[in-house]
Amino acid sequence: MTMQIILTALFLGLTTFSWLRMGKVRVFARLLTILCLVGIYFIWSPTTLTLVANALGIGRGADLLLYIFLIFVLFELLISRIRDKEREEMITKLARRVAIQNAKTHNEPH
Fold first, then answer.
1. Which helix (H) or strand (E) element contains residue 7?
2. Per the confidence metrics, is the pTM higher than 0.90?
3. Which of 2, 49, 74, 88 could crosslink 42 through cysteines, CB 3.0-4.6 Å?
C-alpha cells in the first residue's frame, strides 16, 4: 500500500511538472497526463494489467510494462539521435554561411 501511494504521488508530480514546463506543447502534456492516469489505474488494480497482458499473450503485467517501456525508450533514443544529427547539420551550414559572409566583408576594398 505504501508503494502504491508513492507511485501515485510520483505520477501526479510528473503530470504537474509536464503542465508547468511544456508551455506551448500542450499535446505532449495531455498525452503524458493520460498515460499517468492509466498508470495510476494499473497501480491500484494490478490484476487488470495482468489480464490485459494475458490477452496479448504475455504472462505478467510487469512484463508487458517492461516491453512497452523498452519500446518507448528505444524510440526516444532514436528520435533524440535524429534531432541531434539535424542540429549538427544546421549548425555546420550556419557556420559556413557566417564564414563566407565574414570573408566577403573582410575582403572588400575600402
1. helix 2-21
2. no
3. 49
Residue 24 in grid coordinates: 506551448
Q: What is the extent of the structural domain holding 108?
A: 61-110
Using the structure block, give the residue that is written with the C-alpha cell 510487469: 62
Q: How many helices (H) and strands (E) does the chain have?
A: 4, 0
Identify the three-state secondary structure at position 82. Answer: helix
CA distance 13 to 24: 19
Q: Are residues 65 and 35 in the same domain?
A: no
Residue 53 in domain: no
DSSP 8-state symbol, 25? -
Kindly compute the dihedral angle of the four CA atoms of residues 74, 79, 82, 88, in this order, to the nearest 10 degrees: -110
Give the pLDDT band of residue 1 (cuts 50, 70, 90). confident
Cell triple for residue 2?
A: 505504501
